[in-house]
């Protein structure tokens, strides 16, 4: 069995635990080190138990704890090839392994989805073990058939639902920041995420975690309601056909498999 547990999710920092019976993988390391250690302890883990740290991109809300997590440890660090030099300056490991295509982590097949984001490079990941898959795609501004196809093979997914367009448009953010978030190189809105969810009808997906919510431009209730309406629009019922969860910036008790 393979499981995905968001530890921290949002604009202040992101870190997710992916596990099998034998392997522990951290997807991103973008929150306070001590809080990450405390959350790992709730899974009876320490940083020394982490087999690999897999990074999506170089923004600080995804890598800020990396220097502390890699100090004195043997965890392998994987990152998109274009950012390996940047990541190497933030880690104490001897090598940052470049990600270009599918690769293996201790028997976990890891596939890559190319995101559209205003970073040097940004990817999402799908993790497969013994015929089961979970995936995470955040920090992308585009919805297309490739994204739906990438997610459709999974039992559970974590997908960005960053903002409510009306809240963002009418909010206090400066114009240039609003334009960046709304662009094809920004973040997925609730409406875009709903489009993806509706397109997953007939797929293997049974569990969906809405992630990377903006604290200023979204609420859990609005994001959840948008996702439920997307399911209803294609004749599916939340909690019966597909279960929807909403990840929190600070305190998550979610595990999907």
Molecular structure report:
The structure is a single chain. Strands 7-8-9-10-11-12-13 form a seven-stranded mixed sheet. A six-stranded mixed sheet has the order 1-2-3-4-5-6. By secondary structure, it is of the alpha/beta class. It contains nine helices and 13 strands.
How big is the Rg? 17 Å
Distance between the termini: 7 Å
Q: Let me know the average pLDDT.
A: 95
Note the run of SSEs as H and E. EEEHEHHEHEEEEEHEHHHEHE
Report low-confidence residues grouped into runs of 5 or more.
Answer: none
Q: How many distinct helices?
A: 9
Tally the beta strands: 13
Q: What's the main sheet like?
A: 7 strands, mixed
Helix content: 25-40%
Strand order of the largest sheet: 7-8-9-10-11-12-13
Strand composition percent: 15-25%
What structural class do helix, strand and pairing data support? Answer: alpha/beta
Q: Overall 3D geometry?
A: globular
Could you outline the blueprint of secondary structure elements for this entry?
Layout: E1 3-8, E2 15-19, E3 24-27, H1 33-41, E4 52-54, H2 60-63, H3 66-69, E5 76-80, H4 84-88, E6 96-99, E7 103-105, E8 108-114, E9 123-129, E10 132-137, H5 145-152, E11 156-160, H6 165-169, H7 175-182, H8 190-199, E12 207-211, H9 220-233, E13 243-246
Parallel strand pairs: 3-4, 4-5, 5-6, 10-11, 11-12, 12-13
Antiparallel strand pairs: 1-2, 2-3, 7-8, 8-9, 9-10
Helix pairs in contact: 8-9
Condensed summary:
26% of the residues lie in helices and 25% in strands. The chain contains 9 helices and 13 strands. The strands form 2 sheets. The protein has a 7-stranded mixed beta sheet.
